[in-house]
Structures are given as C-alpha cells and as structure tokens.
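Quick note —
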Amino acid sequence: MTLSSGFSKYCDFLPATGSGRLSQEDMYLFNEGRQFRLHRHLGAHPGHLAGVPGTRFAVWAPSAQYVSVIGNFNNWNRGSHPLVALGHSGIWVGFVPGVKHGDVYKYHIASLFGSYSVDKADPMAFRSECPPNTASIVWDMRHEWSDSEWMAGRHARQTLESPWNIYEVHLGSWMRSPEHPDRVLGYRDLAHRLADHVSNMGFTHVELMPIMEHPFYGSWGYQVTSFFAPTARHGTPQDLMYLINHLHQRGIGVILDWVPSHFPSDEHGLSYFDGTHLYEHADPRQGYHPDWKSSIFNYDRHEVRSFLISSALFWLEAYHVDGLRVDGVASMLYLDYSRKHGEWLPNANGGRENLGAIQLLRQLNEEVYLSFPDVQTIAEESTSWQGVSRPTSMGGLGFGMKWDMGWMHDTLKHFSRDPIHRPWHHQELTFRGLYQNNENFVLPLSHDEVVHLKASLLGKMSGDDWQKFAQLRLLLGWQFTLAGKKLLFMGCEWGQWGEWNHDCSLDWHQTQHESHAGVLKWLSHIAAMVRDCKALHEGDCHPWGFRWLDADDATNGVVSFIRQDASGHEQVAVIFNFTAVPREGWRIGLPWTGAWTESLNSDAQEYWGSGVGNSGMVQAEQFPWQGMPASAIVRIPPLGLVVLHSRYHEAG
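Predicted structure written out below.
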C-alpha cells in the first residue's frame, strides 16, 4: 500500500480543535526527525469524518502486522476497530464513529515478529487513567486562559538579568488535607495555597517535580510513561491549566521537570512497543539504565527525536509553561555513565560521548528558543561538560542555565563540619570562584539532598539546636547572595527537622515554633531582597556582577564579597562569619564613603538570633582597604552574615 492510498480516506477528517490534522508532509517530517508538533498529528483527536462525529486515532508502530483501538466504547474488543497502515511511514490510523471526549482506550498491537501481542496506552495521549489503571482517555484540551498579562510581559521577567528565586515542589507531598492525610490534593486545591505561600516568601518561580503520568508514585514522577499527559492523581489537564494560570496571575513563573533520559519498562508504556525496541536501544549496553533500572531512549532514531522534542514543546504550548528543567543530562551525554569497563559501547569515533543525545539536546534547545524565546531551559548536569549553557552556534548544548551541583555538594559538606575544623577545608566555600563564569548557573538545594538518610538541611548542620538554626540561616544567606540563580526545595524554607517523605505532607506545624518561624521570616526577607535589589540579580551570569573582598581568611572563617547592578550605582557588600565567635571591629572594604544600610542581619532577634549587629547602619570612611577606596568597621555575628546596601547618589 502506498502512503497516498492509505491516507486518502482520512483527508476529509475535521478535528474539533486545531490539532488532529495529518498530512503526508507531516509524516515525512516525522520519519526525518523534523516534526516537532507530533501531538497535533498522532494520538486521539475528536472531530468529524464526512459529517459523522467520532475520534481519529493515529499511532506509530512500524513493526506491527495488526493494530486496533480497544476501549469502553467497543467492550475492549480487539477485532472491532482495526487501524490502517499508512504505507511505509510506520503510522497506523483510523476513525471510530461515536467515540468522544472522556472515552477510555488503548491500542492492541500484534507484532510482525513471533506471537507477541500487547495492549498499549497511547504514547501521545493528553490524559491517562489514574494509577494503578493504565488506559488512555480521549480528551478535548480546550481551556479559557486568563494570563495574557503574564504572557505578554514574560520575556522581561525571564532573562539572565532577571531574579530567579525558584521554589521546588513535589505536589503530592507539599500539603495534604489534615482530614485525609493519605490523599493528595488536586491541582485546583493547591493553586491558591501554593501561590499565597510562594508570593509571601519572595520566590519568583515554582519548579514542579515531574507531573507527567507515572505508574509508580515512589518514583517522584521521574519514571514517566505518558510524556503528554499530566498525572491524573491531581485532576484533569484543565485543572493543571488552572493551577498554572493562577500562578501566572499572581506573577509567578512555572518550570516543569522534564525527563528525556529514560522511561520505565511497564508493559502498557513505551517499552518494546510493537514487539521491537522501538523507543529504546535494543542492546542493554546502550538501552538499559543501571541506576534507575529503566530503558534509555534511542536518540539516534529520527522518530524518537521527533517524539521527545514534541513533548517538550507541547508543555510550553498547551500549558503556558515558562521553563523546562531537563533531568539527568549527564546520564544522556556519556555512554559509560554508571557503567564499568566492558558494560558500554564506544561511539563511532571510539569515544564515550553519546553523539545522538548531544544532537537531540542541541536540536531541542534550538527549537525551544526558536518557538518560545521568552522561556528558559535548565540542565541538571553534574559533570564538567563544557558549554552546557552556551549557544549551539558556539559548540555548546544551548541550554539557558545549568545547575551547579559542585557548589551544592561542596557547600553542604562544609556546613556539616564542626566550625573548628573548617579552616582546613576553606576551599569548599571558595573553589566555585574559579569556574562560576563558565556557565549560567543555578545554585540548587534540591530534593535529592534531603532524602535517603542524608538528613534534612537543618539536620546536616553541626552543633546544638541554636547553632543549627543559625547555620541554616547562614547557609540560606550564602546561597541567596552569591552570583547565580537560586533553587530551594520545599520545607527547607523553615528548616523542617525530618527528611522529606513523599507519602505525607510537609511538617507545617513546625512553623509555629519560634526557631522555625525565624528561619521562615529570614528566608522571606532575603529572597525578597534578591528579587527587588538589582545588585543581587542583574549580574548573576556576568563577571562584573560579583567581586571578592576577602576569600582567603580561612583562620578566622570570614568571607566577604561585593555584588553590583549593571550600572555600578547600586552595590551590596555581604560579610559572612563561619565560626561561632563574633568578630568585633572588623574592617571591610567598600567602593565609596558615606552611610551603608545594614539591610539584613541573619543574627537579628526576629530570626531567633542573638542580636549581634550594627544598629542598622555603618559609616564608610576614606580609608582604602581590600582593594577598595573606602572602608568601614562592622560587627559580624557568630555563624551569621550581614548585608550592607548603598546607592551611589547616597554616597558622602
């Protein structure tokens, strides 16, 4: 059968929405790996054919000898509604009269090879049944958005010079109803509560851990089976749209975790889809992930690249998402990732780089920024791969930003040490200065650091309870004032004692205690200052935005630096004390004379501190110090920091 003869009977199909059209050119581009709106062409699309209402189905299964649609509309009869193969495209298509929005379905696939047959969920489904059920649902994606103001002004909020205070959230365990702690809240239930908290805390963005449908709740969403459907655990696609719409109305951006690095082997999913390793590599040395016990996409296959890039663009298009944090990039880039000698295959050049994955990531970023120049892509990449956040035209991968995993691990290691031992490990604080301008960095304190017996952030701190809380405030101040965008996992904003547990709510009751409330207030104040003060965000990704004053005083554990805005007229000096001894009469270099406001002090009594400070102001005199023309005498609290702020026109 030629493509034309198989295709012609569906040319008159009229989709109910703008999606659902299927042309020979679309299929050609798909097979070439250049069709990046696959969700508009494959999958289930309600509409009309020759005036008859129903749904057109289309699925990629090139090694099938028989494909049919089964569902609640035909009593799951595998022989009722067979699909037709479109020539050599690998696409099977058919129109089923009477099938409508909300109907449940799967594809029955009989392979060309052996006796293998299976019932599969639709890889392109817009909605899935709530686990443990696994079928797909025909769904009309129409929604009335009311976030036009946000979308029109989004670009100005999302540049590298804009503030990015990101709040990382696992929706299923952020908050639950006290009456039903075993149940997760819905997208709509969460919308207003989450927006209120995020706004009050000074965050600019929410990053949602993967909300694509996943069968195993304990995977936190990182074992995805439906790359185009949000998890039904929290409601419908329109419910998720409501959540995002409301966050936008409150001036909050939304980033989604997106997982192109692997997928689970559940029978209803992508694995061994048509009796062949269609989406994954057949050779386990390339197609099996030893860490996550899951399948790895075959990035060399054109149709797989079309599928993955279409998924990324779909969330940006259909859900108005403002950014994608791409999970597991390091595992994609290296063929020997987590593998011993003999357990991996070199590339065509004999190297360890995954050339197909590199091509995919570059193509992904090019297509994202071409279609959505006002969003950002963020790589979770844990190695020293060069140019992750540099343009593809310069040989980079093309991401907008990259997580600084090295900073995270070095910093947490340092804070876990008793202050008496820190002088011998001072480089854990300052080593980042050698590479901080190599990429556009996000400084993360993420979910991975507060699970699996690693202890909570508060639990990692050394010393007694007072010292733990002081050091947590110090840690958050260190993170939020350094150059780089910020990401903090939920519960860390008040210092939850226990590790994160995905099966229950955060311990919100702890915020009633003065110690935790102090951390919460401190974080809200410093995040708001980072958001509102240009000196603390405009230069995050530029060399001029950060300058050490003193990075080498390991003996006294005092570190200081200057942040400035693009004009240089607004500057902030931040002085840290990583010991339990207050530093009196400490001279600090400053760029000009006059009054400098002590805008923040982590040891203030309102934060449950001891109150060592500078009475709200210091006076800079014309006394050169630390390479600066002026200087001032300050008091630095124990295990604390002070933030001094001035604008040039205020100088004396």
